[in-house]
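Run folding on both entries below.
>entry_1
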Amino acid sequence: MSWATTERPRTSFSSCCASPETDGSDRLNAMTETHQLVDEIARLNALERRIVDQFIHRKGVAPDSTDAPLSFGDRVADRVTAFGGSWTFISFTIVAITVWMLINASMAKPFDVYPYILLNLVLACMTVLQAPLIMMSQNRQTARDRLDAQHDYEVNTKAELEIAAVQAKLDEIRNGEWIELMRAQQEQLALLTELVSRRPAAEN
């Protein structure tokens, strides 16, 4: 009697798994998940869609383009910025101004008398020319930092997608093993039930 009660849930479970209603509900759930996925993709921006496309088609992230060859003006701007922001430039400027003033103070007829109007003009012209070059270099560095940040974002996002795909694959493998284990358990229960049903007949 006890084995008969154990047989009923097993039969009910098998028939439930094989019923068309369950297959229809599975298809409905799959369609719902597909529509939700399409809606989520539609809300992505251009960068995120490109990352998803690279992930789906197994494409590598685009290489960093910040190492592109620089023009002559860009190289000059970088050199001026590097030299203008160093102690060497400060020391050179102080020495030049001091020598300028000493030469004019020691001459009988100085070419730039106090208050050194010509020196102020030279310094002003140097500042006017140096400031745009420094801004050009800083703007290009800002653009390079922006590209680096975008590249890092693409790499990190794709890595998250890869990790999620690996986790989903592991879950799929685990679920498959669980289904196989349940199937083996059902077969063992069926064999055990068959043996128990044959035992009274053998005793008789």
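>entry_2
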Amino acid sequence: MNQNQIAQKRLTEMMVVRGVGALLTFMAIFFLPGGTFNYWQAWVTITMIFIPMICVIFYFVKYDPEFLNHSMKFKEKEVEQKLIVRLSFIPLIISFLLPGFDKRFGGSHISPVLVIAAEILVWFTVVSGGFILLFIVGESRFPH
């Protein structure tokens, strides 16, 4: 194996470990508040988020590993930017926790058709975000 193949193998292994960690985190965020694994809406949401994410990651592992290496090492430098990134996680986490608590305590009874329509919207959002990311990376490279 040459150095490039070894680096790509390490990058792939790191992405798999991070992906499994992200999957376990998402499962905890959905299923702990929900109190059950019998929660089809959560399984659909996780699937709709992870399938496009995995495709984009594998694309970058194969065609632009330099971008992945760079983006995994990137950290915000300005205090204000760090604060904004940290604070943006609060509503994001809450938006994932609330449906689980709603499931556990039986608060809402939403039509499965409406849930599936919302999931399709989530899927298109995630996929279009992936395509936007590919376009941005293709058009402007990061400074070395």
